[in-house]
Design brief:
Blueprint (H helix, E strand, L loop, with lengths): L2 H24 L3 H26 L6 H24 L12 H25 L6 H36 L4 E6 L3 H12 L5 E7 L9 E2 L2 E2 L7 H8 L3 E4 L6 H10 L6 E4 L12 H4 L1 E2 L15 H8 L3 E5 L4 H12 L4 E6 L2 H14 L4 E6 L5 H11 L3 E4 L6 H5 L2 H21 L4 E7 L8 H17 L5 E7 L1 E3 L5 H10 L4 E3 L5 E2 L1 E3 H14 L4 E4 L5 E2 H11 L10 E3 L15 H5 L1 E4 L3 E4 L6 H16 L2 H11 L12 H6 L1 H4 L1
Parallel strand pairs: 1-2, 1-5, 5-6, 8-9, 8-11, 9-10, 11-12, 12-13, 13-18, 14-17, 15-20
Antiparallel strand pairs: 3-4, 6-7, 16-19, 18-22, 21-22
Length: 652
């Protein structure tokens, strides 16, 4: 078909759709019922007449013509009365389905039975039995056709209009189950989307070569690349609620050579009935690709830990601190105090929480955690029952060049806040730690490890329950790879990865903070580690994010390797070997580590280190860290020149 002919057909289809829509708007209210009853009466009368014509092979004897005209009013009265009683006149031409079809059949069968009963009761010669059977079959067929034909005409016109549209999106539905069928049905009914569904793919062999909603099930997921290429697919619609992330990654990897877009139904099938699946389609995100199931929390248990309590959050303007504040505010504390030195982010968070949770007494305090007098006054004024200490310098490369600032903020600042919690009578203190504290190779990781030791020392001589919670990277937090990759992909690349083999433990912010609240306020132990599943290869994450953007990795968006930055490791660990031997699994992906408090000699060395940091002597700060932590390996920034030149990092 030529382009002009296609354009003409498209205009004709659009005009037909407009005419159909206008006709449906005109036939509303009483006109709708007059039309339905009138068409039903014509269908019933025609079926009755055809029954006589078929029975008598087109030549109805005179006496049976009298029978026809005698019993036609009675048949109309019985059928239309029963259809009214069964609600067949109240019909949704757009949303009718199998249930409504069953109602039509039941109404016609009941009408025939009632008519036969009335004829028998009248004791008169009625229509032949074969006429009654033929009339029932024809009436059922005609009434069904009258009710379903507008819907199928509309769907056909919408499908044709979409196939002629330059904005159409050729799509496959991944999953031929209940959710896939429901999605297909809504896509057929709606003209508010661009999707031209070509078919389904599903791993169930029993569904192959069948059709759903007129679309074929084309094969298993492993054949997706071939199907995508053959049918020029542009988008995959995942209709397998709670599809394992590993399976999603396999699909994305197999289709990485195509410019595809991806959307999913990330919910249970039962909830699709409350909201249309078309409205719930959303883009796949990096969160859907984690190597483990998502973590869920008992809202009753969480609320019981927080409701009615006075809580202080330091570092409230940061990624983790702000999410802690949001989750706590939703659980109904009596008072929530937000403390940070970044007044802009603090103000924005304060305004948001005031708007979202007006019933919570929220305060914003601009403070420097290294200012002992200010912190002590804050504790005396607010008398917090729970303290979440999230304030810290966390950027690894920056802290390599400013080790004294890492110690002053992450160690001395932590000590001051912890001592404030003890002095003000707080019941619980929760330190946010990191996997970089295990066998650290960075100043930042070492400073957090020393902060853990400070908290562990206070725990043995205070009525306050101290807990350090250690976890890995948080997906989407400030400075993490996900927002960096998104920005780089939006610019067209290149996407920068430090090393081909670098791996990281990754958790969503919601999960990490929920587990921090649970571990910290339940009082499981002095050190809690969040189980984060298998670490993710960052290169794989970069490739998957490019694919999720509808682009082809390393063809549309290049990937470059920068080499590990100072202080970085190829793979982090959540526990040292000794901690692993002295740990035990607890519920909700939390592992409790039993370790001895630091010795007096270690505490004296930490105090000396803090004094050196205050003096700003950077080389001595690094030496002091090595005196505290025997497993600390300084990065190449602090290696001697000869050692740096001999190391692989130095040659890079």
């Amino acid at each position: 078909m030529t382009r002009s002919a296609q354009a003409g057909l498209g205009r004709a289809i659009v005009a037909a759709l407009s005419g159909l829509a206008e006709a449906m708007r005109w036939f509303s209210g009483w006109r709708r019922y007059v039309l339905i009853y009138g068409l039903d009466a014509v269908a019933i009368g025609l079926s009755f007449h055809l029954g006589f014509l078929v029975r008598f092979e087109g030549r109805v004897p005179g006496e049976y013509q009298v029978v026809f005209w005698t019993f036609l009013p009675l048949l109309l009265l019985v059928r239309l009365t029963l259809q009214t009683a069964l609600g067949i006149h109240r019909w949704s031409f757009r949303l009718s389905g199998l249930h409504e079809g069953v109602r039509v059949v039941a109404a016609c069968a009941t009408g025939s039975a009632a008519f036969i009963s009335v004829v028998y009761f009248l004791q008169r010669v009625g229509p032949p039995r074969s006429v009654l059977v033929i009339e029932w079959l024809l009436t059922t067929a005609l009434l069904g056709a009258l009710r379903f034909s507008p819907r199928y005409a509309h769907e056909w016109l919408v499908t044709q209009a979409r196939s002629q549209s330059p904005a159409r999106v050729r799509a496959l539905i991944v999953g031929a189950g209940s959710a896939g069928e429901l999605l297909m049905r809504e896509l057929q009914r709606s003209n508010e989307h661009p999707y031209e569904v070509l078919g389904f793919v599903d791993d169930n062999p029993g569904k192959w070569r069948t059709t759903i909603g007129g679309r074929p099930v084309l094969g298993p997921l492993k054949e997706l690349p071939e199907i995508v290429d053959r049918r020029q697919v542009q988008e995959l619609l995942f209709a397998i609620p709670n599809l394992p992330a590993g399976r999603v990654r396999e699909v994305l990897a197999s289709c990485a050579g195509f410019k595809l877009r991806y959307r999913s139904l990330p919910v249970a099938f039962s909830s699709l009935r409350d909201r249309g699946p078309l409205a719930m389609l959303q883009q796949l995100t990096p969160e859907d690709l984690l190597h483990r199931p998502s973590v869920s929390f008992d809202p009753v248990e969480m609320r019981a830990l927080v409701q009615g309590r006075r809580i202080l959050v330091t570092g409230a303007g940061g990624s983790i601190g702000s999410e802690i504040a949001r989750q706590l505010a939703a659980l109904g504390p009596a008072r929530l105090v937000l403390a940070d030195i970044n007044e802009n982010e603090l103000y924005l968070l304060y305004r948001q929480l005031q708007q979202d949770h007006p019933g919570v007494a929220t305060r914003a305090e601009v403070v420097d955690i290294r200012d002992r007098e200010r912190i002590m006054r804050l504790g005396a004024e607010q008398r917090p029952q729970d303290v979440f200490h999230a304030a810290a310098h966390k950027h690894v490369p920056l802290m390599e060049h400013a080790p004294e600032e890492a110690i002053k903020n992450n160690v001395t600042g932590c000590r001051i806040v912890a001592e404030m919690a003890d002095a003000s009578g707080a019941e619980r203190f929760v330190l946010i730690s990191t996997d970089k504290a295990v066998s650290p190779t960075s100043v930042m990781g070492a400073s957090k490890r020393i902060a853990e030791l400070v908290v562990r020392d206070l725990a043995r001589r205070s009525a306050t329950r101290f807990t350090a919670v250690r976890f890995g990277n948080v997906l989407g937090s400030a400075g993490s790879v996900v927002p960096l990759f998104k920005a780089q992909i939006a610019r067209g690349g290149p996407v920068t990865v430090t090393h081909r083999e670098v791996r990281r433990y990754i958790m969503t912010t919601r999960e990490a903070v929920g587990l921090v609240i649970l571990a910290g306020l339940t009082g499981f132990g002095d050190l809690c580690v969040l189980e984060m599943g298998e670490p993710i290869v960052i290169l794989d994450l970069a490739r998957l994010m490019i694919s999720l953007s509808g682009l082809v990795p390393e063809r549309d968006v290049p990937i470059t390797f920068m080499g590990l930055r100072p202080g970085e490791k190829l793979q982090e660990a959540l526990l040292s070997e000794e901690e692993g031997r002295n740990s035990r699994n607890l519920r909700h992906m939390i592992r409790v580590v039993e370790t001895a408090p630091p010795s007096e000699a270690t505490l004296a060395t930490i105090a000396a280190l803090e004094a050196i940091a205050s003096a700003g002597d950077r080389p001595r700060v690094v030496s002091g860290i090595r005196s505290v932590l025997t497993d600390y390996t300084p990065s190449r920034v602090w290696q001697p020149a000869s050692a740096e030149a001999a190391s692989p990092a130095g040659r890079r």
